[in-house]
Write a structure and sequence with these properties.
This protein has about 120 residues and is α+β, with helices and mostly antiparallel strands. The protein has one domain: RNA polymerase II/Efflux pump adaptor protein, barrel-sandwich hybrid domain (OB fold (Dihydrolipoamide Acetyltransferase, E2P), Beta Barrel). About 20% of the residues lie in helices and about 35% in strands. Strands 1-2-3-9-8-5 form a six-stranded antiparallel β-sheet. A hairpin with a 4-residue loop joins strand 1 and strand 2. The two termini are about 15 Å apart.
Length: about 120
C-alpha cells in the first residue's frame, strides 16, 4: 500500500527524494483518518523550515490537523492545486505532493522510515 520509493515520518508525512529536492505529502493513513479534506494551508516559497516544525494545516469535515516537516530546508515549491482543490489528497495521497523542499541536512532522512517500517508503525 505504501510506495517503496519514499520515506515516511511518524507524523504521517511522506518524502520522495530526487537529486536535490524532496517532495512532501501526507500518507494514505493520514488522509483516511482525516476524512474528506476541505481546506489546505501551505507555506510560501522561500520559507525555511526545520524538521518537526509545522509547515501548514489541513482541514477536513472531522478536524483540523497540523502538517509537520519531515526534513529541514527551504520550500522551493508549493502545489497550488490544493488551494482550489484540497480534496485531491483524498483521491491519491501518495501522488498528491504538497510542498517541495531543498533539504539543508540530508542526514535527517535517515531518521525516517521505509515503507515496511511505516506499515509496522501503524499496527
Amino acid at each position: 500500500m505504501y510506495p517503496n520509493d519514499r520515506k515516511y515520518s511518524k507524523d504521517h508525512e511522506w518524502v520522495q527524494m530526487t537529486d536535490s529536492e524532496a517532495r512532501i505529502g501526507i500518507t494514505h493513513y493520514a488522509q483516511e483518518q482525516l476524512g474528506d479534506v476541505v481546506y489546505v494551508e501551505l507555506p510560501e516559497v522561500g520559507r525555511i523550515i526545520k524538521q518537526g516544525e509545522i509547515f501548514g494545516t489541513i482541514e477536513s469535515v472531522k478536524a483540523v490537523s497540523e502538517l509537520y516537516s519531515p526534513l529541514s530546508g527551504e520550500v522551493t515549491g508549493v502545489n497550488s492545486e490544493f488551494v482550489d482543490h484540497p480534496e485531491l489528497v483524498n483521491g491519491k495521497p501518495h501522488e498528491a505532493w504538497m510542498i517541495v523542499v531543498k533539504p539543508s541536512n540530508l542526514e535527517e532522512s535517515s531518521e525516517l522510515m521505509d515503507a515496511t517500517a511505516y506499515s509496522e508503525h501503524l499496527k
